[in-house]
Amino acid sequence: MPDEPGRGERFTSDQRALLQTHRDDQDHTLAAINQLEAALATAAFGRQAPWYDTVVAALKALEAAMIEEQSNIDDPAESLLSDIERTQPRLRHRVRGARAQYRDLRQRIHALGRELTDHDDIDVTDLRNRLAWLLTALRHQRARESDLIYEAYYEAFQRDIEDDLRPP
Q1: I want to staple 32 with a disulfide (CB 3.0 to 4.6 A). Which of 25, 53, 65, 146 is the partner?
Q2: Confidence of residue 4 (pLDDT cuts 50, 70, 90)
Q3: Does pTM top 0.90 for this prediction?
């Protein structure tokens, strides 16, 4: 983002690359979310152990995707959020808040994964509810981050980001 609103007419090629990396990370994480939701939705009655194993594998895939996404959003030089934080001081606290919320959710998912080590006494309903809460929180965090990016773009260029992303 330019330092002053309106200074640049469009994203630079570097900023476009940062945005594409951000979107790729989100797509990878979204695929892992969908995989976990599908695992949670399968029948568990009479087959708790295989259901549990599928859910735990999907949870691990989500955690791996989130670790990669977090490493990219925390990169001080190669992150769209870092670019916003650097060039738009008014939005710095929101960037930090989005990062902190994401980090917290990733840590909660990691802690739940560590907790799920034994499938001898599975409470399917409880596990579904706990994971549903985490997935809902993750969706809210992603929406908050998207709003932040769109607001930063609008503030910098005085137009909607979608205008810049359309082919010329």
Answers
A1: 65
A2: very low
A3: no
